[in-house]
Structures are given as structure tokens and as C-alpha cells.
Specification:
Blueprint lengths: L13 H34 L3 H15 L3 H11 L9 H26 L3 H9 L4 H31 L11 H12 L2 H32 L7
Length: 225
């Protein structure tokens, strides 16, 4: 093989790489928090007693889980302006990621809630707590304790999926790699560096979320009856 690696020529673009990393982290943090928050609400509606809301949330989950993320992104960015809703590329990208994570986290959290012993609900009622108080303070901590590995993995998948935002010119990591490659014609070096950065981000995110999960729910989880 005659090809000679030339990482030195990529180094002058370190500012662009750092900018891409920072934007990717910002997008990930915002979408993770909002996506999980929406998932908690969705799960609460799914296990609630209102059949209409159950079906609406269930339909939303099925639509999102059975359509490609890139199609969802294009629909929001290119489709919504047709009915007068105009968004910037970053806004459209973040909304698409939040919606995607919300759908998947709704089902993950719902599964955790439904696996919690029914005696926990009865214990809460005995204490005179309202339904939402039982859900938030008794059931949800136990559910998160059970489903945190699956939920963390989904958050990482969504973070990696942020690479698709480059298709609508959001200047995250993949956009940066494309930019560097177009300037230097060093495809291997450009995408190798970005691949390594994504790997570090994914490992770091898993470690941080696992640490937070253990600290937050360690003292809040009650023993199931």
C-alpha cells in the first residue's frame, strides 16, 4: 500500500474540531434532559387511566419507532416550512432528537414502571399520597433503577445519531469531518479523528450517566414488597 498517513495536515483545523465537539456536547446535554423529561410524561400517560391519552401516546411512539430518524429530521426541517413553521437547522435538529428520544424513553420507562411491584402503589395509597406523588416519588425511582442501563444506551444512540444533523448543515462533528475532508482531501485521517472523538464521547457519556444514576437513585429506591 503506497498511501501515507498525513495527520499533520489536519491539525490546522483543530479549532473547527473543538467547535464541533462543543456543539455536539451541547446538543446531547439539552436533548438528553428534555427527551427523558418528555419520556417520563409519556410513560405516566401510558400507565394512566385515560384511554384516549394512552392511545395518543402509543400512536406517537409507534410512528417514531417505526420511521427512520433522518426522515423525521427532514420532515421537521423541510416539511414544516410548507405549513408556515420555519425553524433553523439547529432548532429542527434538536427537536427531532428530543422527539426521537422521547418516544424510545417512553417505552423504556413504561416497562420499568410496569415491572414495579403493585404493592408499591397500594403502599402509597395507604399513606394518603395522590397518584402523581406515588408515581414520582415511589414508582419512578425504582423504575429508573431497573431500566437505567437501557435508557443510558438509548441516550448514547441518540447522541451518535446527532451525526445525521450534518445533512441539514448543523456544524457538529460529522459536519466538521466533511468540511476538513473537502479542504484537505484526507478522508481517512479526517474521519478517523472524528470516529475516535465519537468513541470518547460515547464512553464518557455512559460513565457520567451511570454515575449520576447510581448517585441519584441509590438512596431513593425502596425495597419491593
Amino acid at each position: 500500500m503506497d498511501y501515507e498517513l498525513n495527520f499533520v495536515s489536519v491539525l490546522p483545523y483543530y479549532k473547527e474540531i473543538l467547535k464541533g465537539i462543543l456543539l455536539t456536547i451541547q446538543i446531547t446535554v439539552a436533548t438528553t434532559i428534555l427527551g427523558i423529561a418528555a419520556g417520563i410524561i409519556g410513560a405516566a400517560l401510558r400507565v394512566g387511566k385515560n384511554k384516549v391519552l394512552q392511545n395518543l401516546v402509543g400512536g406517537f411512539v409507534e410512528v417514531i419507532r417505526n420511521t427512520p430518524f433522518i426522515v423525521q429530521l427532514f420532515f421537521i426541517f423541510f416539511g414544516l416550512p410548507a405549513i408556515g413553521i420555519k425553524l433553523t437547522a439547529l432548532e429542527a435538529g434538536m427537536i427531532a432528537m428530543i422527539i426521537n428520544l422521547a418516544a424510545y424513553s417512553t417505552e423504556i420507562i413504561r416497562a420499568g414502571v410496569e415491572s414495579t411491584a403493585k404493592g408499591q402503589w397500594e403502599a402509597g395509597k395507604t399513606l394518603g399520597l395522590k397518584w402523581y406523588q406515588i408515581f414520582m416519588h415511589i414508582i419512578l425511582p425504582q423504575a429508573f433503577h431497573k431500566i437505567s442501563p437501557a435508557l443510558i444506551s438509548q441516550c448514547i444512540i441518540v447522541m451518535l445519531g446527532s451525526s445525521v444533523l450534518s445533512q441539514i448543515s448543523v456544524e457538529e462533528l460529522t459536519f466538521t469531518a466533511n468540511f476538513i475532508q473537502s479542504r484537505t482531501f484526507l478522508s481517512f485521517e479526517s474521519y478517523f479523528i472524528i470516529t475516535f472523538v465519537y468513541l470518547l464521547l460515547a464512553i464518557s457519556l455512559r460513565y457520567i450517566l451511570t454515575y449520576i444514576s447510581k448517585k441519584v437513585f441509590k438512596m431513593n429506591v425502596m425495597k419491593e414488597s
